[in-house]
Amino acid sequence: MIGMLRRLCLPAFGAAAILLSGGCNILGIIPAKSNNEDVPAQYVPAKDSMLVLAESYGAAPSADIDSQYVGFALTRDLKDHEIAPTVDPKVLMQLRDSNGDEYNKMTIDGIGRAAGAKQVLYVQITYADVEHPTGSDQARGIMTARVRIVDSDTGETRWPAGSRTGSVVQIQTEWTRTASDQAKIRTKMADQLADAVGKLFRTYTPDHLNDVSKVAEQ
After folding, report:
1. Domain residue spans in the chain?
2. Which of 13, 50, 63, 215 is buried deepest, with most CB atoms within 10 A?
3. What share of the chain is helix, strand, coil (3-state, %, to 5)?
4. Statement: residue 147 has pLDDT above 90
């Protein structure tokens, strides 16, 4: 469990608590603009092989978020937008399955090296929940994650520079009348988080007024 604890950046906090914490400095809010102006990339990764490693370790039990699904969705997003050469997520699955408990002792950079990646995009899901107000037939999902890129050779954080915990990305889905089908909301949350994280590393044009991501660094 030592390696697992090393990989954890924060215990699970409520989404609002994370963003309102006194130790958290807002790097930027990426809003949709009425004139569709491009939003620049927060960081342009090196064109080195990249492994996406998404984990939650029980930080989001109420929403039952599948971190493996987030990893697959984000890998696909990075590949589609040619952000960096990506390692097949199945390599990570095989590494985890073949090493059993030893996998949990591995560090982020160790996992990257074992998977043949030069850098690891580490996504730690710290909060996820489906809001369903009493007496309402509507619901929405909220999810927060800490994101950083780790060099597989040195173990140093490539981005955000000088940060040990990474940048916070928070998403929330639109209110929907599918409160009884929370599986769809959880899938939407995971897809939306993958999209928001992917946009950190590329310039994009907002396509609607709800295209909003919040990014912060501690």
Report:
1. 2-217
2. 50
3. 30, 25, 40
4. yes
